[in-house]
Amino acid sequence: MNTPFHLAFPVDNLENTRHFFQELLGCRIGRQTNKWIDFDFFGHQLTAHLKPEEVKPVQTNEVDGDPVPVRHFGAILEWNEWHTLADKMASANIVFIIKPHIRFKGKPGEQATMFFSDPSGNALEFKAFKDPSKIFSTK
To answer: Rounded to an integer, what distance in angstroms lies between the CA atom of residue 72 and that of residue 68?
Structure first.
């Protein structure tokens, strides 16, 4: 079993954040107050903190021809789970930062990837590998 990670991040509206993570992404809610919410994010603990002054625009770097948000987080999903989520986000009219596609085709690390933002502008990436043993592959 992998050890779950914890990530805390700023948001500018807790109710919009709750809806996005719970309803769209299917995250279970854990502890919460009027200033933060814990989410079960694919087995990991995310904490959204209400701190509007900390929400900032994201800068990008080019990766395989795409303008990838430098500050982002997400999850590596199973191949079919990734496709299901991509379809769900498209049906929900989510605006993709980077539309679902295959990156590094035919190279080490070939992966399905997509980027979109939460309601506060935090960038999320979801990716999948047909062969999970290739996640850290360089050859």
So the answer is: 9
Provide the b/e sequence for 100-133 (b: ≥16 CB within 10 Å): beebeeeeeeebbbbbbbbbbebbbbbbbbeeee
Q: Nearest 5 degrees, angle CA 86-CA 38-CA 70?
A: 55
- The CATH superfamily label for domain 60-134 reads 2,3-Dihydroxybiphenyl 1,2-Dioxygenase, domain 1 (3.10.180.10)
Q: How far from 102 is each of 20, 46, 75, 110, 126, CA to CA, in Å?
A: 25, 27, 16, 7, 12
Given this structure, which CATH class describes domain 6-54? alpha beta
Report domain extents, the chain: 6-54, 60-134
pLDDT tens for the chain, residues 1 to 139: 589 999 999 999 999 999 999 999 999 999 999 999 999 999 999 999 999 999 999 999 999 889 999 999 999 999 999 999 999 999 999 999 999 999 988 888 889 999 999 999 999 999 999 888 889 888 7
